[in-house]
TrEMBL record:
Species name: Zoarces viviparus
Protein name per Swiss-Prot or TrEMBL: CULT domain-containing protein
Family annotation (InterPro entries): CULT
Annotated CULT domain residues: 51-181
Record-linked Gene3D superfamilies: Peptide methionine sulfoxide reductase
Database matches in CDD domains: CRBN_C_like
Superkingdom, natural source: Eukaryota
Amino acid sequence: MVHKRSLRLLVKQLERLIMQYISFALLFHPAAYQPGEACAAVAEGGTSSAATLLLCRACGHELAVGTDINFVPSRLALSSRNDTSIGGRRINVQLFENPHGHQFEVITFRKANVTQHWPANKHFSWFPGFSWTAATCPRCKTHLGWAFQPTDWPDTITENRFEESEHTFLALITQRLLREDFASSLLVTPQSFKS
Ligand SMILES: [Zn+2]
């Protein structure tokens, strides 16, 4: 008779391995990365407020508001630039490169409505002292960026612990975000269709 307990353990280990592989694959093989693409989240003009909603560009799911943005500088960034189109605030956009040569422009957030994939990985972190997990869209599963937690924390923590700590943050890929006011400007009914 197969030992149920060891089978369950094996399945658990397998699940853990698969999740690790997915996080790793997401970091190194971004599906939809287009280096030349304009930054939709911060560069598409128009007036906005600090409460500007930031959406998943792929499905429109609400991810964060402008006030969730919080600059976390990294000495590993290839470059850093300012952008002022979210609520007139200065938003720092940093450029990073992963070990496979893929570059990502990211904005750092205090919190965001994303799905995280623990256990966290200590290797190849863009923020020294922090481990990362992949962060995906809760609705369409698009890879949106990474979440960071202190390296000396356990690899797997609860969502609550992540959210409540001041030592955690996220780096979301600018090209995968869309500003809500830009999205609604796409949906404005032309004058001629109104009665
Ligand atoms: Zn989405």
